[in-house]
Amino acid sequence: MTNIGLFHEVSQDCSRNTTEKYSTSFSSAIKLLHKDLRQPIHNIYGFVRFADEIVDTFHEHDKAALLNEFKQQTYTAIERGISLNPILQSFQLTVNAYKIDKHLIDAFLYSMEMDLSRSNYDKAGYGEYIYGSAEVVGLMCLYVFCDGDKELYQQLKLSARSLGAAFQKVNFLRDVKADFEGLKRMYFPNCDFNNFSSTDKVAIENDIQKEFNDAYNGILQLPLKARFGVYVAYKYYLSLFRKIKRIEAKKVLEQRVRIPEYSKFFILTKAGIRSQFNLL
Known about the structure:
- The chain has helices spanning 3-22, 24-30, 35-57, 63-80, 86-98, 102-117, 123-146, 150-174, 176-182, 198-220, 224-245, 249-252, 261-276.
- It is mainly α.
- It has one domain (3-276): Farnesyl Diphosphate Synthase.
């Protein structure tokens, strides 16, 4: 292996380790993708995770300065084709290999900037934030899944956006206590979480259900290399969503809903059977 090859490997190991440390569910789903797709998706997740970490965690530091540095280093890494930051080195490898549209990266980083300055959203701002923080991540992954097939990408892009939006909105509903009390953020428009009602919760859930419905047909049209892993991730989040739907509105503010490991195993087993009988 050449020296540069070793550097690529070490950098990408960092992205994979980041995924595994921060999200057991997501890393489990990635393992179900074809081996050719796993590392590029790790590389995207590592980039997204580090940017999110800046705005959500580093409270004792100048977040705006850190995010701006990270943003500039990202664009420099993509332009140069190399970075000494292993997360950005991995990300630029994927961006340049799959020719990921720079607009998607712009939109994502702008949504991270929004987290630094905004604590609540109207309907337009909420839509803009969801697009930048989640839908474009789905589109970045779709670039990898389609592997240069532009026609397929255009065919599936709306479904990919819906899936990304569904995942993010479920996260918001699951983490509403931490976001509202810990970070002083209220993403859902026209909601007062001091008086969060069942009507508010049902309206949010109806919106999320529509996103899941819109995403499903697209998942079935994904290339075989990607379909099973994405389907399992979809089922994980759908199971989490259904569990949240079963609890009262006031309980959403009191607890963080999780899917136990035995439930994840059941989802995986059932999905495997469906795949074996070509039901996906």
